[in-house]
Amino acid sequence: MLRIVIVDDHPIVRKGLLELINHEPDMQVCGEGDSIETGMKWSRIKRPDVVVIDLSLGLEDGLELVKAIRASMPDVRVLVLSLHDEMLHAERSLAAGANGYVMKHEAVENLIDAIRVVAKGKTYVSPQVSERVLARLTGRRTAEDTSPLERLTDREHAVFSLIGRGLATRDIAAQLNLSVKTIETYQARIKEKLSLANVHELTRAAIAWSKE
Fold this sequence. Notes:
By secondary structure, this protein is α/β, with parallel strands linked by helices. The strands form two sheets. It has a five-stranded parallel beta sheet, with helices on both faces. A two-stranded antiparallel ribbon has the order 4-5. Helix 7 crosses helix 9 and helix 8 packs across helix 9.
């Protein structure tokens, strides 16, 4: 019996995932979380075969949970769910230690297969992402294939995401447990990497991305 922990901050989504997984005769949801803290709690207590993690956990970055599980429980497999651009976030998730990536709108069709694949010690991504990763490894990716957001580090991307959700600099600093000056430094780097002239352009770009 495969034991699964679900980490998603939307109760309705968690319920749907739970029903989908528990419908399988060889799978059982053994824990549910809605944050990094509760996700780690149930992962430590239950030691599941697979943890299914939504990248957007309220104001928290699901990648931080991926990294925490990989660092403290390397035997636990991690499958990421996301509403955002697969081409951007799949590689970022795999680099953080995830074993697979599924777009949320494809969860009903692909989640069960993805869980089985990662539980066997393999990696699950779409054929498009597989080709993209292979192209990067073999040097066949061109500048046109690369999103400007790929230039951001994980921390810069977290700051960019929080800007898109309407948080002010001081609030972002509090959320990430960093100083205001550090957040301002990240904002300056993001503007440079995305060729944005000022804070207003940065805010507009972040909000537009958050709505995609």
